[in-house]
């Protein structure tokens, strides 16, 4: 059984890697965003509790998020293993998760960090641009339009860059995430379950490294 967390800064390729891991190892993909939406839509007690904070413009407390995670980890599709996406983000949440996985006898088997240098991440993230007409998203490095200057989806020729994709904003976002990511890596390194892969390779190579770690 594989119970896994992927760590990495924005733009490191966690989303791409997650999809391939789920397909290859048939794990339940548990995203905190999806979890919140489902619990609120289904009006579960924890969902309603989370909604009361969100409706008032407040952050959902760690304990409430942890209750949601515990609810989700008890569902049948996690019996073959799971990959957690978006939780934990802090060492406090990591400690809460440890308590949950002990109680449910579903302890983490692996934590994998996809490591990419800040310079490369800034290039990747600030290469994103969007079509003004239909909102299709492209990336100058990894996903340009098939015909230069022409949107694949609607044929539009006007593009723009969102404010949060501009290099100076990206740099700030990475700093904020690094402050959360580094203590988590230390936390799991001390537990002896952290592995690192080089995220500056092609997605295929990154997945090969992850595959080898998980197969062990």
From TrEMBL:
Enzyme Commission number(s): 2.7.4.3
GO cellular component: cytoplasm
Residues given in the record as ATP binding sites: 11-16, 128, 137-138, 201
Limits of the Adenylate kinase active site lid domain: 128-164
Residues that bind Zn(2+): 131, 134, 151, 154
GO biological process: AMP salvage
CDD domains: ADK
Top-rank taxon: Bacteria
Subunit-level organization: Monomer.
Its job: Catalyzes the reversible transfer of the terminal phosphate group between ATP and AMP. Plays an important role in cellular energy homeostasis and in adenine nucleotide metabolism.
The name this protein goes by in its record: Adenylate kinase
Originating species: Lactobacillus iners DSM 13335
Encoding gene (name): adk
């Amino acid at each position: 059984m594989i119970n896994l967390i992927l760590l990495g800064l924005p733009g490191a390729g966690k989303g791409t890697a997650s999809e391939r891991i789920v397909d290859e190892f048939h794990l339940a993909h548990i995203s905190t965003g999806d979890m919140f939406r489902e619990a609120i839509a289904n009006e579960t007690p924890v969902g309603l509790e989370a909604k009361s904070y969100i409706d008032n413009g407040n952050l959902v407390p760690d304990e409430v998020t942890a209750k949601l995670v515990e609810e989700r980890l008890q569902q049948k599709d996690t019996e073959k293993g799971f990959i957690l996406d978006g939780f934990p983000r802090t060492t406090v949440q990591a400690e809460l998760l440890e308590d949950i996985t002990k109680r449910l006898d579903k302890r983490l088997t692996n934590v994998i960090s996809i490591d990419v240098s800040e310079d490369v991440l800034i290039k990747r993230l600030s290469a994103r641009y969007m079509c003004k007409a239909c909102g299709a998203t492209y990336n100058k490095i990894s996903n340009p339009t098939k015909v230069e200057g022409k949107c694949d989806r609607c044929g539009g020729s006007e593009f723009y860059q969102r404010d949060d994709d501009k290099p100076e904003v990206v740099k700030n976002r990475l700093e904020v995430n690094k402050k959360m990511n580094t203590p988590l890596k230390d936390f799991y390194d001390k537990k002896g379950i952290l592995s690192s892969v080089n995220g500056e390779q092609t997605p295929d190579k990154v997945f090969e490294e992850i595959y080898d770690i998980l197969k062990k």
